[in-house]
Amino acid sequence: MVVLRKNGSDGVVTVDFTTVELDKTEHTATPGIDYETISGVLTFEHGETRKTINIKILDRPTEEVRDESFGV
User: Fold this and answer.
1) Are 19 and 31 in contact (CB under 8 A)?
2) What is the pLDDT at residue 64?
């Protein structure tokens, strides 16, 4: 997942993040079943505008295509 820093890039900025289950509906991904829960801190250095968060999507061999969402 790519996180973009907008409206300038002066100075150092830190952002806390965590993955979250949005709700309990059919099209919501479940942590520990569909993806690994992670949290951390992104640090944008002076002049940086792009960072990447790697979120592992877990295999579910019984389903070929999934249409589910989660939040960050």
Assistant:
1) yes
2) 73
